[in-house]
Amino acid sequence: MSAAEHGPDDVLTVRGLRMEAGPPGSPVPLLDGVDLRVGRGETVGLVGESGSGKSLTARAALGLFPAGARVSGAVTAAGTEVIGADRAALRGLRRHRVSMVFQDPRAAVNPVRRVGDHLTEALRARGVPRREARDRALDLLERVGIRDPRTAVRRFPHEFSGGMLQRVVIAGALSTGPDLILADEPTTALDVTTQAEVIALLDSLRRERGTGMLFVTHDLDLAAAICDRVHVMYAGRIVEETTGAELLSAPAHPYTRALVAASPSLHGDRGAPVPVAGRPRSLAEAPSGCSFRDRCPAADDACAAAVPAVRRHGGAAVACLRPAAVAL
Amino acid sequence: MTVDLTAVRGRSFRARRPWGLWAAVAFLAAAALAGLCAPLVAPQAPGATDLMNSLAPPGTPGHPLGTDSTGRDVLSRVLYGARLSLLAPLGVVLLASLLGITLGLTAARLGGWADIVVSRGMDVVFAFPGLLLAMLVVAVFGPGVVAPVCALAVSYTPFIGRLVRNAAVQEGARPYPEAYRVMGFGGLWVTVRHLLPNIAPMLIAQGTLSFGYALVDLAALSYLGLGVRPPAADWGSMISQSQSAILQGAPWGALVPGLAVLGTVVSLIVVGGHIGGSIVKKGERT
User: Fold this and answer.
1) Is position A182 within any domain?
2) What is the pTM (predicted TM-score) of this model?
3) I want to staple A149 with a disulfide (CB 3.0 to 4.6 A). Which of A138, A290, A294, B138 is the partner?
């Protein structure tokens, strides 16, 4: 997989990330051999169903692992090796280098403190003087398209609409000038028009500042539209890495193809959405070999033997013995 | 963005005027002011005896609310008494809040064994009657203001501590504390800067009610002769000293401070209930 060919400009590299929880006697596997990388100024998508490990992977970039989880592999975020890092290193990483934008802005901001306090808190903690932090906050609010920043900083979160508050959260994420932004379904809680605005905002900020972005979503069209590269996750493994352009036009892995067929489309030649048979598996309950094989129409005995190795298929890297064998 | 609804809000939508609340606030303000300005407004010195005029009824010239059995002016003593009667419960509430917040947040943040030890410890104190504890402490350290205040503070700590612990656990399970941890802030910072302000309204409501209870408890201790020592006076000790006069047909010496206690406690319950109620309403809205 091209994740192995990491360059010096990468703001995030994940190699062979394995994670398991539960007692050592009966471990519950969560992630298995996740590889991905995000270059400077690059937007990388991470798509998959709920429970596939997207958010776990994104959080791992901050050294946030579930309580009691055993982790192995290598995660390097903004030049810091995260696994096994001490508190001070993780604190520095989270404060200065990597920011996160959450799904629901209303849940991610302290409801009783003013927006200005939220924006300046990280800067103040860094030792930026009060006035300068305030000016930076005003500047950021202006940048993310909040009208009249001077009154906005005095407002409370509940006085903003969801889309406006997500802009505030994005401004907060940018306040420290991070190298990497982890966007965990940042538009899922917003309505469609605000969604488009927030996406456009994130994209322009990324372009402007050269920040790398890991974009977690289950919206394939969105991922295809804004991501340079997309990783498709299923049951704790990455099953396909492809370009944003080819995600919809030439999906290779049967799972990706099933996802594409399952998502409704307003235009193009795709017909009615076709549901993916069966229900999503977690890694713990996945079958041996290819974890998708019990839902895959093209699976046979060979798929059960071992987890398929990653192979090239056109522009994509696919963990499947028969890429593109399933009709779209 | 919020829309200003007051412009379209008609008369029928206006909230009922909470006159009871304003009356309570006014009473508390008056009591606090009385204590503060006692030397300016009291007609007599609180300890000045006027034996010629003992048990004078209200309305006697120079003694608008009458005098007690040693001829001390009831109004002056009630005004001066407001100082100790209000400051001592305030001390109880502040001390209990300090202990309760510290213990409650510690239990909520550390969880596990620390939570079990702190919570069960508070249950034990909770089960022990506060007045009894105060009497024990007074028996050991002697009467006065400091010992009963400390003892009552300890016995009030579980009320605050359990509230803080449960609210902090509940609040900590919401996503925003984690969001701040993701920003690189430590657990202690997040707890104090973010969790505490979110549970503050609840604390204020509980503190207001505790203040009323503490006032009654301290008055009871004074009444039993275990609180403040003469010549210093609070409302409880005034009631205690004037009860024999009730049988002599002069109830005002006990009645006036008794009404002061009653008015203050009722006002505090009204105010505390209003704060608590507005939290519930806010909770329903979100």
Assistant:
1) yes
2) 0.74
3) A138
